[in-house]
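Why do we care about 3D structure at all? Because function follows from shape, and shape follows, mostly, from sequence. That is the central idea of this module. The next example makes it concrete: a single protein chain, its amino acid sequence, and then its structure expressed as tokens.
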Amino acid sequence: MRRDGRLFDLGFGLVTVLAGIVLYAPLVAVSALSFFQIVRLRGKLSFAPFSLEPYLRLVENGDILSALATTLVVALVTTAASVALAVLFAFYFVSARKSLGLAMQSLIFLPFLLPPIITGLSLLIFFRELEIARGILTIVVGHVVFVVPVVYRTILVRLQFLGRSLTEASLDLGASRWQTLTLVLLPQLKPALIAGGLLAFAMSFDETLITLFLAGSETTLPIRLWGMMRVGFVPEINALATLIFVFTAATNPLLANLNRW
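And the structure:
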């Protein structure tokens, strides 16, 4: 039995190591290539010396920086709108009739469950019928429709965990409903709000397919990178991917410590 257990542990460990390599090897390769470019010398491929030139060229690349600025604006507005709507929907669900709450919840989750191409096409037809020009506004609306279900579920779980007793105790002690919301419930929802906001930002920052239908003349970073990769990789892409990876890794401690707040 012990030998079988050791073999199982060894096999499980090998699978874990292989999964880690598959997941992180591309990230390590991209990061390394942002500092050591591949060059051809005398008909052979080799690595150039360490250089920060891709990062300097990234700063000078106006197209990428413009796309990045658009993406950040869209992601920040999407995050704010999604968190606000998710809070409203979550409070309505716990206070409304069960049938009405379930009907609302089904409508919220439907765009997220549909394939993104269907959601993007439906929104495109909707905006065209209303004669609304495609741009940042339409991109934000599309992202909010796609992101709200995730944020809503994150906040709803936390709100249901708190239960009604906290609200009832606050009201019994003389607090108004507004004071109960701002001084009692929202502080208790802070971990869920932060987690939902980070998820909304990451999903909006990465969204490509819906954006393709709604962007019009605007260009977000994923669309810009997709266009650049169709004609070949440039060192700036590796540098930008490395910076995004470092930023994402830096947010992990924040997510891990949310429950302490």
